[in-house]
Amino acid sequence: GKMTTKKELQQKLKSTGYDISPYASKDTLAIILRLHVQAIEKEVNVPQLNDIELRNGLKMHDIPVGPVTSFTRAIYQRKLLEVTTKQTTEGQDDDMEVDDHSSPVNTQNPPMRDGIRTRSGKCAFYDCD
Q1: How far apart are CA 76 and CA 115, in angstroms?
Q2: CA distance linking residue 39 with residue 42, whole number of Å
Q3: 15, 38, 29: which is closest to 94 by C-alpha?
Q4: How confident is residue 106, by pLDDT bands cut at 50, 70 and 90?
Q5: What is the pTM of this model?
Q6: How far is it, in rounded angstroms, from Cα 64 to Cα 58?
Q7: What span, in angstroms and rounded, lies between the C-alpha atoms of 12 and 10?
Q8: What PROSITE patterns does the entry give (predicted)?
Q9: What is the average pLDDT across 75-84?
Q10: Closest by alpha carbon to 81, among 70, 90, 94?
């Protein structure tokens, strides 16, 4: 069959009722759709839940929930899908890392040119000029 584009996946999820971050990868979108089907089989229709039902669903699984806003709804929908299906919605190539466990590579410091300068620019060895 024809390959599904990321845009098609986003539209399908939106029409299903999910608020998904635009940063979610195509991989993640495909997983969310798949888990949605599994959740429906368990009679949990995540996008049909209102804010209170969404919060209650997460609390039932002992997941701390703050206020449901347009920003957090996407996160809570994914979390509820995850606990309902006991799987993860994280795809292989998410554009944005929201995972606290992974430390992103620090790109703040310029690469060391000669390997002997300390961060302050002072010479690390006694015999540099």
Answers
A1: 46
A2: 5
A3: 29
A4: very low
A5: 0.68
A6: 7
A7: 5
A8: LEM
A9: 95
A10: 90
Query: 10 Å Cβ neighbour count for 27?
Result: 16
CA distances from 34 to 59, 76, 95 (A): 23, 17, 20
Q: Which residues 6+ apart lie within 8 Å of 101 measured at CB?
A: none
28 close to 94: Cβ distance less than 8 angstroms: yes
Count, residues in the chain:
129
For the chain, list the domains and their CATH numbers.
Answer: 1-42 (no CATH), 44-87 (1.10.720.40)
pLDDT-derived band of residue 80, with 50, 70 and 90 as boundaries? very high
d(CA 46, CA 67): 17
- Per the structure block, which two tokens stand in for 1? 């069959």
How many Å separate Cα 58 from the centre of its chain?
17
117 strand-pairing partners? 123
DSSP label at 105?
A: P
Per-residue tokens: 41: 């089989």
Question: Could you tell me which residues are beta bridge partners of residue 123?
Answer: 117
Give the other-Cβ count within 10 Å of 28's Cβ: 23
